[in-house]
Give the backbone structure.
Amino acid sequence: MNMKTVPAPSRRAILTQALTFIVALVNQRPGRELREVVLLCLLLSGGAFLQQAVADTTAARPLKIDPNLDEKSDAYMNRQSAALLAEASRTLQQLPPQFPEPRERHLGLLLLDSVLHDPQAARRPPVQTFFRTRIETALAEMEATQVHKGAQIWKLYNMGFVVRTKSVTLAFDLVSGRTAGCPDFELSSNVLARLARQCDVLFISHRHRDHAEEPMAQLFLAQGKPVVAPPQVFADRPLHASLTHLKRAAHITQSLPVQGGKQALKVVVYPGHQMGSVENNVSLVITPEGLSFAHLGDQINEGDFMVDYEWIDAVGQHHRVDVLLPPCWTNEIFRIAKGFNPRLILPGHENELGHPVDERVPFWGDAEFLQLTYPELKRSSYRTIVMTWGESVRYVPDSR
């Protein structure tokens, strides 16, 4: 049976009808008492009408994001972000991560630098869409990817990496993006749950929120998957007792069962730090195939605190390192590379939107920030491939 649905009248339509009725009453020239009541109704109804009209206008107008800009300039920044991100996406799709890096790809990464160094970047809808789309695309690739030789390595947000070999899938520092300071930028709970299902173990380098998130750890623990972290991580939370605390000891190999004991990883937890007071696990993980991946978290030596170089300078003498995953902003990344002597380097932590603009290390390097040697590393003979959110590379052991 077809029945025509009559839409309910809008508040504006009801108010308009009420005003028309009231005006008609006034025009009939009633007595003084009735006229006063009618005029009061007129004022109240008119006020409600104006309030609704203002609300409708406000709802239709896009909210201004940057308080230092007028509406037209702020809207322009949104349009420019959309245009530059679209161009960068096209370039990066045509020229995926590779070594050596084509100049056109480098220029595409510089476009990202320009957009992501807007102080309000995380609040701009084009940036949010760019971030979420790229991570969700990477997740779909994970769900469809089987590895038969070597490893597939996805770069997510900050220092978040997922590494898949034929036998296991490793996760490092997975986060939602909440430290960017905008809920609309964060990955959804559904995406985070799907990420956890794709992995066998989560390694958390240290306690800072852009590397360690309790909901992410809970997803792994709920699935019976180990979460390996230093003792400082979630130290005041109930789940702390459920975390795996491997011994922080240089060059010492420990065993870590995964997949309910069906597989076992060999793990060296180097006793790293972020400028002394923060325990930072530098995890060297060796898979059943014999492939090794070293994730550095926020490892940094600075000022008088230089003790970690005692083991950093010697890692390559004790263990073969296939892939090094260092933070681009650590001030001696080139020295660290020499110490680990890896076959491939995949830097992370560029353009962290939760940091002040000057601390969002760009793809162009910014050697003046902390006297970085990131540009020097990229000019060296070490095979270094620079990726952005959601990209992946295939590592084959016999390639260098």
Notes: Confidence is low (pLDDT under 50) at residues 1-8, 37-50, 53-60. The two ends are 70 Å apart (CA to CA). Residues 95-395 form a domain with the Metallo-beta-lactamase; Chain A fold (CATH 3.60.15.10). The CA atoms of residues 192 and 262 lie 24 Å apart.
